[in-house]
Every structure is written in structure tokens, then in C-alpha cells.
Amino acid sequence: MKLLVDIGNSRVKWGLSEAGRWSFGGAFPTDVPYLAAECERQMAALRRPEAVLMSNVGGVLAGEIFADWCAKHWAVPVRSVRSEASALGVVSAYPDPAQLGVDRWLGLIGARRMGQGACCIVSAGTAMTVDLLDAEGRHRGGAIAPGLAMMRSALGGLEALGGPVETFDGFFCNRTGAALSSGIVHSAVGLVRESLRQAATLLGTEPELLLTGGDAETLRPHIEASCRLVPHLVIEGLHAVAEQSP
Ligand SMILES: Nc1ncnc2c1ncn2[C@@H]1O[C@H](COP(=O)(O)OP(=O)(O)O)[C@@H](O)[C@H]1O
Ligand SMILES: CC(C)(COP(=O)(O)O)[C@@H](O)C(=O)NCCC(=O)O
Ligand SMILES: [K+]
């Protein structure tokens, strides 16, 4: 069994890979002071993994704390997966491949493994990332924007907008809380819509939309394009890498 861990800027998500399949294990906040305790709580009872693969974009310290916990608990080394120029049928668009977030890199690998055709990957996490993968597995680049919670906290700093966010029942709202929610959600939805429009122009055909990340479920009802919800695309990518490595 191999342990797969995705450390993002908000949450750590993990799963177990074995005999060609993987299963989701759990998630906890990427709060450095509590990270080791959360590992203890959620992973201590697992049998010793033969390997640990980590995707870390949540900061060097979070990665070190996790690796130290694995070393102490199982004496097993953690492989910190790195973005590459090409691997598993995917070719990175970045001239400096290491600059591409490894979560985005693994999302591309997961998407390639899961689908056949071109796809537009939208990850709604701490940040919102968009990546375009063509039918030949070439990464065509992407975009980065604030995630929903980041947009909310940015606005929350304004005195008049510090109140609670409410649900909205139409685009145009008549209450501050609902107006905030509508503006934030539709900013994200607008990025998705524009990404698909630009992708169709670039590729000559509209790609499949893959929606992932912790806020995917929030966004999905507001996206009119058909989309495939893949809750943990980064772990799909880690599973693909784990299967390829001995
Ligand atoms: N159980 C949960 N706990 C915390 N945040 C959650 C949870 N479920 C969904 N979310 C949403 O997921 C977002 C984080 O998504 P995620 O993909 O885990 O981010 P990242 O990969 O950047 O850490 C949070 O901003 C929050 O809105
Ligand atoms: C943009 C990100 C911070 C997203 O991280 P997340 O929201 O998943 O925590 C991550 O993909 C990253 O660190 N990217 C490096 C810059 C780039 O991809 O161009
Ligand atoms: K992420």
C-alpha cells in the first residue's frame, strides 16, 4: 500500500493506493501547529506504507513536518513529487517546468489518465487554477485567480463588507450578504466560462470541463457547461505516479 498526500494552502487531503485502485482517506486543515497531531489522529492506525508520495504546494514547513512525522512513525521516506517537463503522456507548457505548481502538474496527469480528449481543468481551492490539456496530452498553459474564500476575506477587510455572506437567489441582489456571495461565485463562474471560450478558440473544439477542489461542489450548480466533477484530481495524479514507480 502507498500513501498519497496532497498538501494545499488550505487543506491536506490523503488517500491510499493499492492493487491498481486508490481510496480517499481524509482531509484536515493545513495548519502547521496542528499538522503532526492531525497526522497522528488520521494516519497512526494505518499499516506501514511501502511508499509515501506527496504533492506539496502548502509551504516547505508543512512538507517538512509531514515528512518528519512519517519518518518517526513508520521510518518511511516521503517522495516529494516534482513538476516535470513531461511524464505519463503529459508535456508541460512551462519552459521552466519546476515553476508549475505540482498540484496543477499532477492534476494534468490525473486528467490524462482519466480521459481521452482535450480537457480544461478548473481547481477551486485556496487559489482557483485553470489548465488546458489538448487531446495529445500537451499542456497549453493556464491561469491563476483568487479562490472563493480568498475573495471573501479580501472584501471582508472593508468595514461595510465584514458581515456574514448569505446565499443569493439571483444575480442581482438587494442585501449586502447576498451581493457578496453573488459577486464572488459569479467571478469564479465567469473565469470558467471564459476559460472554455478561449479553449474552444485555441483548440477549435470545446474541451471537456473537469472541476476539482474543495469549492467545486459550490460552483457546479452555477456552471451551465457540462462538467465532470473529480473531487480529488491531484490524488488521481499521485496514484498514476505511484503506479508507475516501483
Ligand atoms: N470540510 C472542509 N473543510 C474546509 N474547507 C472546505 C471543506 N470542504 C470544502 N471546503 C472548501 O475547500 C476550500 C479549499 O479547497 P482545497 O481544494 O482543499 O484547497 P487547497 O488545495 O488549496 O488546500 C476551502 O476554501 C473551503 O471553501
Ligand atoms: C497556485 C497554487 C498556489 C494553487 O495552490 P492551492 O490553491 O491548491 O493551494 C499552486 O498551484 C502553486 O503554488 N503554483 C505555482 C505557480 C504556478 O503554478 O505557476
Ligand atoms: K490544491
TrEMBL record:
Pathway: Cofactor biosynthesis; coenzyme A biosynthesis; CoA from (R)-pantothenate: step 1/5. GO terms for cellular component: cytoplasm. It catalyses: (R)-pantothenate + ATP = (R)-4'-phosphopantothenate + ADP + H(+). Substrate binds at residues 94, 101-104, 176. InterPro entries: ATPase_NBD, Type_III_PanK. The keyword Kinase applies. Its EC number is 2.7.1.33. Pfam families: Pan_kinase. ATP binds at residues 6-13, 126. It is found in: Cytoplasm. The keyword Protease does not apply. The active site is at 103 (proton acceptor). It comes from the Bacteria. Its cofactor is K(+); NH4(+). Catalyzes the phosphorylation of pantothenate (Pan), the first step in CoA biosynthesis. Homodimer. This is Type III pantothenate kinase. It comes from Methylococcus geothermalis.
